[in-house]
From TrEMBL, chain A:
This is Adaptor related protein complex 3 subunit sigma 2. One of its GO terms (cellular component) is AP-3 adaptor complex. InterPro entries: AP_complex_ssu, AP_mu_sigma_su, APS3, Clathrin_sm-chain_CS, Longin-like_dom_sf. It is found in: Cytoplasmic vesicle membrane; Golgi apparatus. One of its GO terms (biological process) is Golgi to vacuole transport. Transmembrane segments: none annotated. The lineage of its organism: Eukaryota, Metazoa, Chordata, Craniata, Vertebrata. Part of the AP-3 complex, an adaptor-related complex which is not clathrin-associated. The complex is associated with the Golgi region as well as more peripheral structures. It facilitates the budding of vesicles from the Golgi membrane and may be directly involved in trafficking to lysosomes. In concert with the BLOC-1 complex, AP-3 is required to target cargos into vesicles assembled at cell bodies for delivery into neurites and nerve terminals. Pfam families: Clat_adaptor_s. Its main location: membrane. Residues 1-147 form the AP complex mu/sigma subunit domain.
Automatic annotation (TrEMBL), chain B:
Residues 657-674, 722-737 have a biased composition (Basic and acidic residues). Residues 620-694, 708-828, 852-904 are annotated as: Disordered. Belongs to the adaptor complexes large subunit family. It comes from Paramormyrops kingsleyae. Part of the AP-3 complex, an adaptor-related complex which is not clathrin-associated. The complex is associated with the Golgi region as well as more peripheral structures. It facilitates the budding of vesicles from the Golgi membrane and may be directly involved in trafficking to lysosomes. Involved in process of CD8+ T-cell and NK cell degranulation. In concert with the BLOC-1 complex, AP-3 is required to target cargos into vesicles assembled at cell bodies for delivery into neurites and nerve terminals. GO terms for biological process: anterograde synaptic vesicle transport; Golgi to vacuole transport; neurotransmitter receptor transport, postsynaptic endosome to lysosome; protein targeting to vacuole; synaptic vesicle budding from endosome; synaptic vesicle membrane organization. This is AP-3 complex subunit delta. SUPFAM superfamilies: ARM repeat.
Amino acid sequence: MIKAILIFNNHGKPRLIRFYQYFAEDMQQQIIRETFHLVSKRDDNVCNFLEGGSLIGGSDYKLIYRHYATLYFVFCVDSSESELGILDLIQVFVETLDKCFENVCELDLIFHMDKVHYILQEVVMGGMVLETNMNEIVAQVDVQNRMEKSEGGLSAAPARAVSAVKNMNLPEIPRNINIGDINIKVPSLSPF
Amino acid sequence: MALKKVKGSIDRIFDKNLQDLVRGIRNHKDDEAKYISTCIDEIKQELKQENISVKANAVCKLTYLQMLGYDISWAAFNIVEVMSSSKFTYKRMGYLAASQSFHDGTDVIMLTTNQIRKDLNSPNQYDTGVALTGLSCFVTPDLSRDLANDIMTLMSHTKPYIRKKAVLIMYKVFLKYPESLRPAFPRLKEKLDDPDPGVQSAAVNVICELARRNPKNYLSLAPLFFKLMTSSTNNWVLIKIIKLFGALTPLEPRLGKKLIEPLTNLIHSTSAMSLLYECVNTVIAGRTVSGSSGLCVGLSVCASLCVRLCFSLSPSVKYLGLLAMSKILKTHPKSVQSHKDLILQCLDDKDESIRLRALDLLYGMVSKKNLMEIVKKLMLHVDKAEGTTYRDELLTKIIDICSQSNYQYITNFEWYISILVELTRLEGTRHGHLIASQMLDVAVRVKAIRGFAVSQMALLLDSAPLLSGNMQRKGICEVLYAAAWICGEFSEYLEDPVQTLEAMLRPKVSTLPGHIQAVYVQNAAKLFAAVLRNGQQGSQEGAAVQETIQLLTDQLPIFVQSADLEVQERASCFLQLVKYIQKLQQKDVDVGEEVTALFAGELNPVAPKAQKKVPVPEGLDLDAWINDPPSEPESEDEKSKSAFAEEEPQQPRQRHREVDEKELARRREERKQEQANNPFYIKGSTPAPKGYQDTMGVEHIPVVQIDLSVPLKVPGMATSDKYVKIEEERRKRDRAEKGKKKEKKKKREKRSRGDRRNESGPESEEDIRPAQTVDIVTEEMPENALPSDDEDRDPNDPYREAVVATSKSTTEEPADPGQGSDTEDAVSSFPLRCFPDVLLGPLGVTARDLPAMHFMPQKSSKHKKKKQKKEKEEKEKKKKKQHRVPNQEEEESVQNGTVEEEEDPLPVCDVQGNLQDSSRVVVSVIFENKSSSFLKSMEFNVLDSLNAKLQRPEGAGPHDSLSVPFQLPPGVSNEARFVFSVQSIVMPQKLKGTLTFIVKSDDGSSHEKLDFKLHFTCTSYLTTTPCYSDAYAKLLESADMKGSSARLQGVGLPFQHLLAKICFHHHFSVVEKINSCASLYSRSIQGHHICLLVKYTDQTVTIDAKCDESSLLGNLLDEIKLTFSQS
């Protein structure tokens, strides 16, 4: 069983968390911090397995992780999973992300956490490996995304237009200006 | 209205979506919390709107915030609303949020049952998929009960996408609602044959998880999985199946055999390292249970595969190689030990995970030779280690490694103490308690080290204030507990008790935890007693006493005020005592001795099993009624009560005993097997030579001072490093000395065969002698404790009798007071080799240097055992032959008997077969001089027969006599060994021999001659070999076993004793014993198997025997009869 899947960046900022066993939110954060602490101090060319996470599981549990550029992908598994198998699975997952996002980078994960979740749901379900064939995963994700698009129809179109405008302006806008505030003024026309 | 709607939709266009939220948070790095709280307020507003898309958007943002650690359980109802949207987009969002935040305690879950059922049965497969995925994360017992049927139907859905999800979620359902397992299982099994590989893989996955929890129930699926394993090409499925087999093989050994072929094929064919590794793992698991008959993929193959993994460039694979090795180490330590260098190399790896794994393996790697080196390496790591977890792990491993098998590998305890002291300098370790208990253990049990330990502990106490600042929280201060106790208890070794006393009474001590303060106060009292004792000697010390009393009266009040009751009580008692003594001192009353008497007596460690071993006094029956139970029940009520009371204590007890016997026999077998596999056990079936008798023996053996170049008192805190160097030098010197000695010895006389064998060889493990004369005080046992060493041994065990018999027969031999001059010479020429060896019996040092084994009163039984262990195959024959004075011209031979008091040389012989050499037996002859004259120039000669020949040195004629390499003063005995070559062992035989010697008395000397017979019984060729019942059964079935039987009548012995007697005198071991019937086994040095079935009815013993050599059997039965007719 996979007990948790954590993705965080080099600074320990979570990008995706998926626990298959219930932990309260503050505990989840502690686990992320502990895991980051354990993983981040390791060199890149050491082994991908770690024991000693005290918060999640006990001696039966292992952390299996991979480090890609700015992101750590950490799977917390028990002894029923094959260590090298999970390592392969992480690779499959990342390659799938790469296919779905076209050259995936950390920003994709930051802004599309929900989509990453949907992809992950096709790989692991309830802590058990669902599918390891990348083409199958990508196909299922694509079908569902198409469904979403078709459903979006008219109501989604303006939202996309607005976000396109927002995104267009993004580079020019100084960082400290809060884009979020702009749109609040528009609807405050005096009511009839 | 229309306007409102338009406004709503415009509103929505400019609502923040997830991307805006993320962007906003990134732009508010400084006041993130504040920004998020405003966002949450907005989200709350959005959730109040009716528009489902607004709600979905809000829920999406909440999911993101949940990841950042914000509790979103307040929005659970809104999430349910979004889940129930008809649009896939929103539904999916809702289920995602639910799977992230719902749990068993979420109360709105019960509202979702119908919605989920609707989604599960939706015509759109993705609606179903989303529902299944979500459900897998938040399924509750109620949901599983209500939805189990729907999910079960989905397992046969037309779309494989749904089928595989439905199969996987069944596992979660089984966990929450176990009743669903039975009806669903057939369908699950069906899915193993599903045409879609994904569904198949899911089914394998679920069954593997189930089997992991309870493998027994899934054994019946083995053939199905076996088929899958040979047909599947999906590595994922294969890995899971192989893992499953790893769990099943321990339950079904036959499976192991079946798996050989496919696993071998996979190992050789697969290119996937993950699959290869799992195969190796399963093979190891198979090996651990099925022994030699199990998986033929030899363990060596596995071990070499592991090594191959360890050499891999990928650190991950290396890690797994070590992991697999540690599994092999548990059962087959030898095959790992040969890769010691590799593992030591891994200790230097920069990867902590690999180092940790190597540490685990290290436990089986240490030896006397390399212990210091390895620990030194570990200490370096301790210094370098950053993380406390790894450092703590190192610390426990160091202590584990050093203390394993009763400190077997430690040759220098000073070094060990200094290692422990060094470890106390670690900051923030949690294992202060562990270090403390080691210090106490070593100081109490190793007497020779106490002086050194006390000096180190005093220093530790002195620097304590310095330490206590930062270590208090973390528990390293526990070592002060040990330090204080050691200084107090062994205060006679303290150079300056006053100074230590001062250190112990510093005000800062009161910041330590209560239990440590209490020990401080108590041991301050002991130190005070020591000061008083010293004070009697002179006036100068008298002043010191006054000062100490002053110090105590000044400092103790701090402790009297302590909040800890224990400290308070002890301190006020002590304070009053001091004041009273002060008064007496003023009156010039000498109180030193009285105060010392308060703490007199030595505290010895008590063996954990000591209580059990207290023999039950004769005539004490704890189950007997003290008062007769009321015989005539007066009322109905009481009747039932008394009946209850009568049965209660008896029935369960009997059952218990019955279970005990079988259970114990089984456990004994298991233990034997385990011991045979365990490298730390010295091989052999006899119990460890550690027992109550040692305690006494230890006291009587003089402690020999060692060479002075090893400084016993090291000024200042010791550092362990220098011991490594010292040890090196010492060993070098040792070797040189030993060489010299050996030359000398050679010149003097040739000693026993055993010694000669050792001379030429390189320095062996056992040759490394301990640096100090270290007597490990064995744990104390109650007086007249049962003389069994094996704690679990049941009182009916025939072996027990055997042990008693051994010790009896040897203690009855006359005690040897002075040990002959010759022996004494031998002892003093290498004092360190002899005595530590004897003393370190429990530590596993050979008895090689013992000059003789038979004349050591009381302990001889142990030496025999020890010897049996060391020279495993060697076996002993307890045939004693007794000889007497020449003038009386009469001979008698006493079998197995005690030795009668005679007057002159008294050879007692002992024929030993050696399994390694089927044609050689060693005869140990003990010569004891019972006369009052000095005997010298003894020559031993035997008239060879066709069958047995005395082995003489090369060049000697067949009739030449051998000179006995010692002289015998009056009342002294010594042992000599002679080797005989034997052709056939099926017949007993007697060899005639002569001993010639010169008797030197006051009135001159005369040449005397003593004739004797050496009796080689058939029994003496047997070796006690344990045999397991299954192997025994096979043996009996084999065709070439010839049968014979014997009857013994009028045997008055209880069956137990009878068995013990046969086992003991004729070297059998009990295979199985049922009531008054037992099967026994033994093996001759030439490999004949002898099986006995002993039945006992009404004083008549029937022995049915089988052996592959009928004449041997016949002779053996005659000997057994003889044994019983004599008694």
